[in-house]
From TrEMBL:
Family (UniProt): Belongs to the NADH:flavin oxidoreductase/NADH oxidase family.
Protein name: NADH:flavin oxidoreductase/NADH oxidase N-terminal domain-containing protein
NADH:flavin oxidoreductase/NADH oxidase N-terminal domain boundaries: 27-190
Keyword set, alphabetical order: Fatty acid biosynthesis, Fatty acid metabolism, Flavoprotein, FMN, Lipid biosynthesis, Lipid metabolism, NADP, Oxidoreductase, Oxylipin biosynthesis
Keyword Coiled coil listed: no
PANTHER family xrefs: NADH OXIDOREDUCTASE-RELATED, NADH:FLAVIN OXIDOREDUCTASE_NADH OXIDASE N-TERMINAL DOMAIN-CONTAINING PROTEIN
Cofactors that this protein relies on: FMN
Biased composition (Polar residues): 1-16
Recorded GO MF terms: FMN binding; oxidoreductase activity
Organism domain of life: Eukaryota
Biological process (GO), any one: oxylipin biosynthetic process
Length: 213
């Protein structure tokens, strides 16, 4: 469980101790983050990898994350969709089906086996999406019907976004529920906590919220 793991990580001060003769650089000193005792301050930022074929995490994700895990360290998983309307990138993982939850479990176990904490970043891409990524080729849902202008992707391709459908007020609670359910699913998969990435309000004011369960 997270708690037994945290207790375990509290003893993970090997980096600090091994540097008794020279003071450890601040980055490598322990840090208490809420209920969590980190043994250093190097955190893996969430990085969308687009290798979760069909939105299901693959076994190689366990290798990738475990390679970056250290005793008492913190990893934040790549943005993970809360529902089938949440996807904004091909082959990004999700956490809304049993298959996805089951696929996350060995990934989380591999990270915990190295003594690190693992947070799941749950998100909805809102209008930063296109018909091809949406169920039945529908319009991406958003708070607005204004389309995002095309953008150059990190690998130099021009990315186009489809005109979104502005949600009616009474549809918004469904999205809130998707986040609620995804947070529970992430915890069922073994992660401790879910930072939330929300493109929904309008991606020019992207906000990352962290909530505690
Ligand atoms: C390929 C790539 C994928 C990324 N994926 C995510 C993501 O899934 N979630 C997120 O919050 N940030 C994502 N980011 C942003 C990184 O986490 C961010 O670049 C990192 O925190 C470093 O911050 P900086 O770019 O301000 O230096 C991504 C960045 C890159 C380059």
């Amino acid at each position: 469980t997270c708690q037994s793991h945290i207790t375990h990580s509290a003893t993970g001060t090997s980096i600090h101790r091994s540097m008794e003769s020279t003071p450890a650089p601040p980055l490598l000193t322990p840090h208490k983050m809420g209920q969590f005792d980190l043994s250093h301050r190097v955190v893996l930022a969430p990085l969308t990898r687009q290798r979760s074929y069909g939105n299901v995490p693959q076994p190689h994700a366990g290798v990738y994350y475990a390679q970056r895990a250290t005793k008492g360290g913190l990893l934040i998983a790549e943005a993970t969709g809360v529902s089938d309307t949440a996807q904004g990138y091909k082959d990004a993982p999700g956490v809304w089906t049993k298959e996805q939850i089951d696929a996350w479990k060995p990934v989380v176990d591999a990270v915990h086996a190295k003594g690190a904490l693992f947070f799941c970043q749950i998100w909805h891409a809102g209008r930063v999406s296109n018909y091809k990524l949406q169920p039945n080729g529908q319009a991406p849902i958003s708070s607005t019907d204004k389309q995002v202008s095309p953008q150059m992707s990190a690998d130099g391709r021009l990315e186009e976004f489809s005109p979104p459908r502005r949600l009616a007020k009474d549809e918004i609670p469904n999205v809130v529920d998707d986040f609620r359910e995804a947070a529970r699913n992430a915890i069922a998969a073994g992660t401790c906590y879910s930072p939330i990435l929300l493109y929904f309000i309008g991606h020019s004011c992207t906000t990352t919220y962290s909530i505690r369960f």
